[in-house]
Amino acid sequence: MTRSLLVIGGARSGKSRYAQTWVEGVDGALAFIATAAPGDAEMRDRIARHRADRGARWTAFEAPIDLPATIRTAEAGAAAILVDCVTLWLSNLMLREHDLEAAAAALMDAIDACRVPIALVSNEVGSGIVPMSELGRRFRDEAGLLNQRLAQMVDEVVLVAAGLPLTLK
């Protein structure tokens, strides 16, 4: 089995379902690392739906900011890990004005050191229109750069569009 997987795609492309199915192909306990913060009712409902989609094999972790440390914690009791999603984590860091280079380097180190299969979900944000705001353009650029770094280091990269996977690497 591939040790590390990056699944990218647009909103509602099927990328999370693809990554979850990949992780569920591993026998044993599974870890789900959520980067979303339940800030409003719609997000709380979304999180609840995602939890309902996973069975008893899954243990959920929340990592809106310290994703690298959570990966290290989760791998201690899991046969495989699913991180959903990298772009939400990035937006959390940006809104709190964290050092993005240091955070990305720490994430790469955590993935590289991870001893169990790990799947990361990320949004492909470069195929749309140019955002109107400076923050939006910066986010698009940072997400694209982070996706490139992740794609270089992981074993496999899959783009999902309209529910259909296309293996890029």
From TrEMBL:
One of its GO terms (molecular function) is kinase activity. Pathway: Cofactor biosynthesis; adenosylcobalamin biosynthesis; adenosylcobalamin from cob(II)yrinate a,c-diamide: step 6/7; Cofactor biosynthesis; adenosylcobalamin biosynthesis; adenosylcobalamin from cob(II)yrinate a,c-diamide: step 5/7. The keyword Transferase applies. Its EC number is 2.7.1.156, 2.7.7.62. It is an enzyme of class 2 (transferase). It catalyses: adenosylcob(III)inamide + GTP = adenosylcob(III)inamide phosphate + GDP + H(+); adenosylcob(III)inamide + ATP = adenosylcob(III)inamide phosphate + ADP + H(+); adenosylcob(III)inamide phosphate + GTP + H(+) = adenosylcob(III)inamide-GDP + diphosphate. Keywords: ATP-binding, Cobalamin biosynthesis, GTP-binding, Kinase, Nucleotide-binding, Nucleotidyltransferase, Transferase. Belongs to the CobU/CobP family. Catalyzes ATP-dependent phosphorylation of adenosylcobinamide and addition of GMP to adenosylcobinamide phosphate. This is Bifunctional adenosylcobalamin biosynthesis protein.
